[in-house]
Structures are given as C-alpha cells and as structure tokens.
C-alpha cells in the first residue's frame, strides 16, 4: 500500500504540511518496503485556483491508498473519496511521526473536509 503525506520538506523529518492542496511536497511511502518517493507540488502551491483538485489527482495518479495531511478542502476531499483514497486529517509534527502513528493505528479517517474552499 502506498501512503501520501503532505510535507513541508523532502524527507521524513520534515514537518507535515497542514495544507493539502498547497502542500510544498508529498512523500509517497510504500508501507511494506518503506521506500520513499518525493513529489514537488510547486505547480499547485501557486495555482490561482483548483489546487486541491489538482493535488488530489496527483495523489490518485501516484497510486496512494491513504493520504495524511493537516487539512483538506471539500473539493479535494470529494475527489479523493470518490477514488477510494482514505483521507486522514489533523496530522501534526513530522512526517516520520505521522507515518509511525498511522502504522500504530493511532490516526483516524476524516469524516469530511476540514477547511473551506478558497475563492478565486
């Protein structure tokens, strides 16, 4: 299974990015091998609009089954849910800590979006 974490940096010791659509990077971790692929989300960080939907599509295209982030808006949440991606929000601390908490079963799936859409 592949897990996507919104990240402010390029390694597991980077802080979780509290923004989904405008996260600086995504770390895609294979839950078995723990191999990591880093994806720069720069195109969506500065997008005038649609960042959440575009980022959700990237996560889906990379084959993630789970996304761990701070917050996610309603449009991105809808796209992820429709594609069967488990969305976990409220993550804080480092990516390493969040990944460990996920493996330990300490993180729960979101029941809906946690932020409002941005205008523009």
From TrEMBL:
InterPro entries: Di-Nase_FeMo-co_biosynth (IPR003731), DiNase_FeMo-co_biosyn_sf (IPR036105), MTH1175_dom (IPR033913)
Domain Dinitrogenase iron-molybdenum cofactor biosynthesis: start-end pairs: 13-103
Taxonomic superkingdom: Bacteria
Entries under Pfam families matching the protein: Nitro_FeMo-Co
Coiled-coil segments: none
PANTHER family registered for this protein in UniProt: DINITROGENASE IRON-MOLYBDENUM COFACTOR PROTEIN-RELATED, IRON-MOLYBDENUM PROTEIN
The name this protein goes by in its record: NifB/NifX family molybdenum-iron cluster-binding protein
